């Protein structure tokens, strides 16, 4: 019965200012990159239809302001999220260090029913830029301690790995939604949160 | 009903009275001229039964009182709310020559159109009839009515006189509850929604009010909203079914819709010209009449040729009363001050910076943001743009000037047009300081200033467009977050460069009141309200819609409407201190006056403690129904099914 229902997946992108949240969203949805994006004020979102395992779902991808000061507004935008995407800039260590606080803040403000198992996906963006400050290994280690959070290295500029990352995000979001509404039956094990997403190392994302 | 008169005598007469509204039995007499009389009738067989009657007679009727009297139409709503004719004249024979109104029927009347129009309402039914006085006005008649009836001016509308009649059970019932409503004309689609009044009086009544207001304010362009709203309201709450118990009674009917004065147009004027500007300076170079200058700027902005100079005054870099000499000294002093502060951060070594994370964070954020500020403008375009460098230097110097505030996203948006105009680092800095003084609280670390403004916006919207405010409240949009960007950077992201220069200079005048930008926001929301409330839109759709208004707003129209709204608010009878304080109008202590201030205060979504009485509930905005704050949502009552 649920297969006929229109599925909307809400995904929230979080991370420090200027790590490329808006760019990632636009690259994924519109396949465009611009270095003229302004700093996001408030929030905005884009939608994209994707097919996951023969089901068409609508992804609603939310982009918010990155400065810490605006975190307190998140409550209005995070609610009802099915997946949270954390983004850092692989060339800027401070953006990696703040990931914990973004994750914690999201869990506080969105207050999902099962915070332990709420799906997060980590994106290390700007992997087209040098010099690198955060190695893939370091990022993966962080992910292991966070319930084996899937990790992707992306370039919103070149588009590298962006599609794959968002597909994983969509699958995680869908799994989250199904688990929330107790529809396990329809989606057997293929979309487990933890094991199936093979973290992409920097090697396979280096298309630049 | 006995209608045989024994004797009567005139108490009052006025000719040249046009029948504007009448019961269906008198439709043919509409818009014909006649004479209004007040009679005292003493009936035979019932001693001391004197009764006053109001009668309108069509002019072309030759009056033979005895015969004529039998042709009067008695408007009787006491039992079945059906207008009946006197027994001697079957309805289809009625020639509409005269219309008789029993004073018992009149529960309120309204005087409008400069005392030239008078409309009677029976309170539990439709409006009885209305008259337009072509010769003079109705003041004399109203004076008579005041002596005949026990009346008081409505709290909501000075134009409405309410007749006190404690004996009317219907009226009492009406004052208690809507619960027992049972409409008969259900086949009328407009009132279809009242069907579920009995099951869901709370939802039903609010839905009704929302629709009534919506209908009145949105669908009936050009008609008199005051009259219509009362009309529709009263017909909606007619036909009380005595047998039905009403539930709880956590709401209460008061007596009339709050009515705003009519909106006036305030088309924008020509910008302040160089000639006008120069003529205002005396021999010392002092501005003579600052108020009139500000007023001109408020009405039309500033001509581009003098903008650079005028902005220094508007942004409090130059004091308005300064002389040429004062300003020359000031420039030198401020220039020095600026470069001292700039040197402070320019001389910080990399090592110092590494050990000074608060500073490094601020600097990092500034660099990130200047590189993505208005890069599409030629002035800021291209790699290694010197103006981007200057933009960053000014913001960094501001960090030193106000380290606690530091740099917050949005500030680069505020500085960009200033630097673009001034093309001078020192002038731009001090003008930016002046702008920041005006919007400082937007950048509070805890966002308290923004939250307060969003709450204030909601209060103002509730006052101006309660239907939309109600809708937003019930669709998870009561926090008004979708207006965040508008308010944070004063529409910088919504308007093009030319418009933003004009818009800001108008706002900087501080005319005509505090927080005029909130009234601009209200004007836009109201302008877009139909689209906002389409398709049962929720927060997501509304945020998207608002974001996509960027680049599409008509700035002049916004200002025009906002000024119209300001004047409506200022002249509104039901203006509360909470609204007054937002706009900086003198408070008059309405705290305990009327019902509106007692309406249960909605808890602020931001727990903003210093805001008094945000009146956000749909009911108290409409001011007819009071609801307990713990009532749950009632989306269905105002859902799209009525549209």
Automatic annotation (TrEMBL), chain A:
<dbReference type="GO" id="GO:0031902">
    <property type="term" value="C:late endosome membrane"/>
</dbReference>
<dbReference type="GO" id="GO:0003924">
    <property type="term" value="F:GTPase activity"/>
</dbReference>
<comment type="similarity">
    <text>Belongs to the small GTPase superfamily. Rab family.</text>
</comment>
<dbReference type="GO" id="GO:0008333">
    <property type="term" value="P:endosome to lysosome transport"/>
</dbReference>
<dbReference type="InterPro" id="IPR027417">
    <property type="entry name" value="P-loop_NTPase"/>
</dbReference>
<dbReference type="InterPro" id="IPR005225">
    <property type="entry name" value="Small_GTP-bd"/>
</dbReference>
<keyword id="KW-0636">Prenylation</keyword>
<keyword id="KW-0342">GTP-binding</keyword>
<protein>
    <submittedName>
        <fullName>Ras-related protein Rab-7a</fullName>
    </submittedName>
</protein>
<dbReference type="GO" id="GO:0005525">
    <property type="term" value="F:GTP binding"/>
</dbReference>
<dbReference type="GO" id="GO:0090385">
    <property type="term" value="P:phagosome-lysosome fusion"/>
</dbReference>
<dbReference type="GO" id="GO:0005764">
    <property type="term" value="C:lysosome"/>
</dbReference>
<dbReference type="InterPro" id="IPR001806">
    <property type="entry name" value="Small_GTPase"/>
</dbReference>
<dbReference type="GO" id="GO:0045335">
    <property type="term" value="C:phagocytic vesicle"/>
</dbReference>
<keyword id="KW-0547">Nucleotide-binding</keyword>
<keyword id="KW-0449">Lipoprotein</keyword>
<dbReference type="Pfam" id="PF00071">
    <property type="entry name" value="Ras"/>
</dbReference>
Automatic annotation (TrEMBL), chain B:
<dbReference type="InterPro" id="IPR035969">
    <property type="entry name" value="Rab-GAP_TBC_sf"/>
</dbReference>
<dbReference type="Pfam" id="PF00566">
    <property type="entry name" value="RabGAP-TBC"/>
</dbReference>
<keyword id="KW-0007">Acetylation</keyword>
<dbReference type="GO" id="GO:0005737">
    <property type="term" value="C:cytoplasm"/>
</dbReference>
<comment type="subunit">
    <text>Interacts with non-phosphorylated form of RAB8A; phosphorylation of RAB8A at 'Thr-72' disrupts this interaction. Interacts with ARMC12.</text>
</comment>
<keyword id="KW-0597">Phosphoprotein</keyword>
<keyword id="KW-0343">GTPase activation</keyword>
<comment type="function">
    <text>Acts as a GTPase activating protein for RAB7A. Does not act on RAB4, RAB5 or RAB6.</text>
</comment>
<dbReference type="InterPro" id="IPR000195">
    <property type="entry name" value="Rab-GAP-TBC_dom"/>
</dbReference>
<keyword id="KW-0963">Cytoplasm</keyword>
<dbReference type="GO" id="GO:0005096">
    <property type="term" value="F:GTPase activator activity"/>
</dbReference>
<feature type="domain" description="Rab-GAP TBC">
    <location>
        <begin position="301"/>
        <end position="511"/>
    </location>
</feature>
<protein>
    <recommendedName>
        <fullName>TBC1 domain family member 15</fullName>
    </recommendedName>
</protein>
<feature type="region of interest" description="Disordered">
    <location>
        <begin position="592"/>
        <end position="620"/>
    </location>
</feature>
């Amino acid at each position: 019965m649920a297969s006929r229902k229109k599925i909307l997946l809400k995904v929230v992108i979080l991370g420090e200012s200027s790590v490329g949240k808006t760019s990632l969203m636009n690259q994924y949805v519109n396949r465009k990159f611009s270095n003229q994006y302004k700093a996001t004020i408030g929030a905005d979102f884009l939608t994209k239809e994707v097919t996951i395992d023969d089901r068409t779902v609508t992804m609603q991808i939310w982009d918010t302001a990155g400065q810490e000061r605006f975190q307190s507004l998140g409550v209005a935008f995070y609610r009802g999220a099915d997946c949270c995407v954390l983004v850092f800039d692989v060339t800027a260590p401070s953006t990696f260090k703040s990931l914990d606080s973004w994750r914690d803040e999201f869990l506080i403000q969105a207050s999902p029913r099962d915070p332990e198992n709420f799906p997060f996906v980590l994106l290390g963006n700007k992997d087209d830029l040098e010099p690198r400050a955060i190695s893939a290994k370091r990022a993966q280690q962080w992910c292991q301690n966070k319930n084996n959070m899937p990790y992707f290295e992306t370039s919103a500029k070149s588009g590298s790995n962006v599609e794959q990352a968002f597909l994983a995000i969509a699958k995680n979001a869908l799994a989250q939604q199904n688990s929330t509404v107790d529809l396990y039956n329809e989606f057997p094990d293929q979309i487990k949160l933890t094991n199936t997403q093979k973290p992409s190392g920097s090697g396979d994302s280096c298309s630049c | 009903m006995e209608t045989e008169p024994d004797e009567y005598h005139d108490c009052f007469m006025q000719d040249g009275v046009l029948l504007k509204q009448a019961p269906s039995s008198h439709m043919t007499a509409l818009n014909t001229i006649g004479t209004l009389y007040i009679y005292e009738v003493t009936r035979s067989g019932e001693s001391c039964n004197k009764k006053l009657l109001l009668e309108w007679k069509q002019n072309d009727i030759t009056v033979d009182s005895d015969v004529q009297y039998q042709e009067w139409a008695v408007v009787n709503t006491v039992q079945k709310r059906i207008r009946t004719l006197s027994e001697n004249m079957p309805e289809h024979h009625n020639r509409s020559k005269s219309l008789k109104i029993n004073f018992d029927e009149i529960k309120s009347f309204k005087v409008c159109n400069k005392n030239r129009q008078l409309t009677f309402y029976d309170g539990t039914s439709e409006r009885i009839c209305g008259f337009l006085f072509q010769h003079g006005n109705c003041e004399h008649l109203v004076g008579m009515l005041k002596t005949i009836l026990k009346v008081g001016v409505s709290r909501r509308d000075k134009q409405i006189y309410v007749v006190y009649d404690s004996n009317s059970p219907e009226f009492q019932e009406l004052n208690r509850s809507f619960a027992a409503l049972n409409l008969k004309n259900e086949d009328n689609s407009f009132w279809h929604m009242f069907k579920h009044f009995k099951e869901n009086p709370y939802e039903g009544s609010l839905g009704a009010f929302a629709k009534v207001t919506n209908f009145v304010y949105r669908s009936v362009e050009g008609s008199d909203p005051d009259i219509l709203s009362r009309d529709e309201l009263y017909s909606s709450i007619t036909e009380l079914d005595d047998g039905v118990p009403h539930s709880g009674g956590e709401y209460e009917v008061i007596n009339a819709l709050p009515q705003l004065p009519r909106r006036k147009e305030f088309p924008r004027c020509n910008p302040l010209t160089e000639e006008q500007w120069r003529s205002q300076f005396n021999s010392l170079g002092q501005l003579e009449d600052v108020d009139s200058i500000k007023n001109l700027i408020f009405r039309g902005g500033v001509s581009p040729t003098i903008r650079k100079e005028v902005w220094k005054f508007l942004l409090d870099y130059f004091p308005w009363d300064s002389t040429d000499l004062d300003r020359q000294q000031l420039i030198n002093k401020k220039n020095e001050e600026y470069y001292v502060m700039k040197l402070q951060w320019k001389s910080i070594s990399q090592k110092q910076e590494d050990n000074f994370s608060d500073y490094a964070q601020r600097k990092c954020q500034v660099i990130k943001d200047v590189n993505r500020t208005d890069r599409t403008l030629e002035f800021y375009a291209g790699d290694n743009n010197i103006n981007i460098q200057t933009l960053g230097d000014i913001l960094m110097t501001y960090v030193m000037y106000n380290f606690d505030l530091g740099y917050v996203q949005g500030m680069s948006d505020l500085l960009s047009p200033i630097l673009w105009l001034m093309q001078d680092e020192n002038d731009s800095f001090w003008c930016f300081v002046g702008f920041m003084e005006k919007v400082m609280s937007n950048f509070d670390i805890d966002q308290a200033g923004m939250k307060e403004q969003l709450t204030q916006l909601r209060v103002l919207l509730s006052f101006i467009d309660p239907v939309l405010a109600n809708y937003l409240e019930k669709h998870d949009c009561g926090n008004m977050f979708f207006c965040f960007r508008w308010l944070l950077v004063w529409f910088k992201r919504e308007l093009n460069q030319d418009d933003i220069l004009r818009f800001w200079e108008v706002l900087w005048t501080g005319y005509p009141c505090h927080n005029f930008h909130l009234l601009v926001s209200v004007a836009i929301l109201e302008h877009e309200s139909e689209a906002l409330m389409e398709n049962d839109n929720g927060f997501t759709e509304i945020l998207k819609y608002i974001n996509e208004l960027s680049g599409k707003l008509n700035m002049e129209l916004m200002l025009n409407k906002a000024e119209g709204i300001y004047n409506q608010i200022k002249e509104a009878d039901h203006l509360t201190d909470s609204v007054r304080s937002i706009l900086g109008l003198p408070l008059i202590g309405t705290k305990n006056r009327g019902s509106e201030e007692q309406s249960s205060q909605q808890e602020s979504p931001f727990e903003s403690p210093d805001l008094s009485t945000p009146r956000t509930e749909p009911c108290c905005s409409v001011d007819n129904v009071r609801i307990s704050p713990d009532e749950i949502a009632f989306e269905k009552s105002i859902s799209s099914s009525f549209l």
